[in-house]
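Minutes, project check-in
Item: structure for the 220-residue chain
Input as provided by the requester:
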Amino acid sequence: MKETLTILIVDDHPTMIEGYKSILFSKYDENKLNIFSAFDCRSGYKSVNERLQPFDVVLLDINLPPCENLKLDSGEDLAFFISKKFPQTKIMMLTSHTETFLLYNLIKKLNPDGVLIKSDFNAMEMLNAFNAVLNGETYYTTTAKQSLKSIYTENNYLDAYNRRIISLLAKGIATKNLPSHLNITISAIDKRKAYIKDFFNIDKGNDEDIIREARKRGFI
């Protein structure tokens, strides 16, 4: 392990950040951890964008206040930016969400080094996860592993674009505005929405019906 680790923690709840710091400092000497904090997509982006050297580890909540002008809607988008700028940085995603669809989408798109469901882990497991990631391993807590196992056993699942469409619709993004988030045409989006309706067995319906069915099946 490096003599000093540089860590970024991004969470919109300052008390959570302090809690994570306390857990890390319970094992590591404070002189060996250089920890930075950010509280939303904008400050997280700034913390990473202004650095010349990569963070060793980023602990990142999925639900973060967005930064619309940077097209960062969530911690997931911020994580993707970090992985592009600093591919060697280890990314650990922290979330309260347990929905199979969301977790599958996260791992399929980003393949983070760790996925920790907040209701799953205590201080000891967080330290175990942190050590595993530092050692080049991938660490998922129990619920994350179970969710992935269940969706991988399905014969059919939605591809990355279709999953993204559902996620954006659930966030209240109107169909007419989806092209700016997906870089595909409105015609292609309409075709994909038709496929999504067929996948969910929706004969007739609108975006609300897609969202309702996705929630019913535990996808969002």
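Outcome recorded: The chain has two domains: 5-152, 160-216.
No further action items on this chain.
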